[in-house]
Design brief:
transmembrane; 0% strand; DUF6168 family protein
Length: 125
Amino acid sequence: MAQVLRFSFVLCISLFFVFFVHTSIIFQLDLPIFDHLIVAAYLINCILAILIYTYLFYSRRKYHDQLGFLFMFGSMLKFAVFFIFFYPSYKADNQLETIEFITFFIPYVICLILETLGLIKILKN
C-alpha cells in the first residue's frame, strides 16, 4: 500500500508542476489558459494512472506474467477516454488544433512515463 501511495504522491506532484509550467507557457503565448479542457485532461489522466497503477500493483502476484499486457490495456483505456470525452469537443470545429492535442498529450505522456517507471519497480520486486 505504501508503494501505491508513494506513486500517487509523486504522480500528483509531478502533474501539478507540469500543469503550472504548461499554463504559464499558455499565458505567455497570450492564449486562454483554461480552454481545451486542460483541467479535465490533467485530472482524468491522473486518476486513470493511479487506478491503472493500483490495479497493476495488486495484480502483481496473480498475473505477474501478464502485467505488460495489463499495462497496455490501461493505455488503450486512456486512448478510449480521449476519443470518447475529449475528441468530440476538440473536433467540434472540424479541426484538431495543436494546442488541443498538446493539452491532452502532455499529461498523458507524463503519466505514461511515471506508470512505466512504476511498472519496472513492480517487476523488479
